[in-house]
Design brief:
- The protein contains four helices and six strands.
- It is of the alpha+beta class and about 150 residues long.
- It has a single domain, classed as Thiol Ester Dehydrase, Chain A (Roll).
- The longest helix has 16 residues.
- The model has no long low-confidence stretch (mean pLDDT about 95).
Length: about 150
């Protein structure tokens, strides 16, 4: 499904994104090393065993990126001009290798752009949820979208 234009959204619109992703050791390893993050909790199984988690902890920035990625096809694919910001990012529960995540999105704000009349700003509340129905990541995302009659 392609994303929606600015004028096709209403505050309160909510989407349960169909795509799910099981996080693998390879996902975590590649993302962590690709971003030069030396945190032993993400890379060192022995150090992670000694932590309060008792196992490898998935890199939080991977979790965040996956959450946003899971949402794109239903929200902004083909209609996005630019992402303007991500606010109030929290990770209330840890993510571990083998967890399966899905995402939800809700429109919490809409406003026409003052400087670009052919666009508007949609603010989404995104959440990533694991197989135990625990929210593992949440943020507000502001996106500048094209209007339908400007596409």
């Amino acid at each position: 499904m392609a994303g929606r234009h600015f004028d096709e959204w209403e505050v309160g619109d909510r989407i349960e994104h169909e795509i799910r992703r099981t996080v693998t050791e390879t996902d975590n390893l590649f993302f962590t090393t690709m971003t030069h993050n030396p945190q032993p909790l993400h890379l060192d199984a022995e150090a992670a065993k000694e932590s309060e988690f008792g196992q490898i902890l998935v890199n939080g920035t991977y979790t965040f990126a996956l959450m946003v990625g899971l949402s794109v096809g239903d929200t902004t694919l083909g209609t996005l001009v630019a992402n303007l910001g991500y606010d109030k990012l929290v990770m209330p529960k840890p993510v571990f290798i083998g967890d399966t995540l899905h995402a939800t999105s809700e429109v919490i704000g809409l406003r026409p752009s003052k400087s670009r009349p052919e666009t508007g700003i949609v603010t989404f509340l995104h959440e990533a949820i694991n197989q135990r129905d625990e929210v593992v990541c949440r943020c507000e995302r502001s996106a500048l979208l094209k209007k339908a009659d400007q596409a």
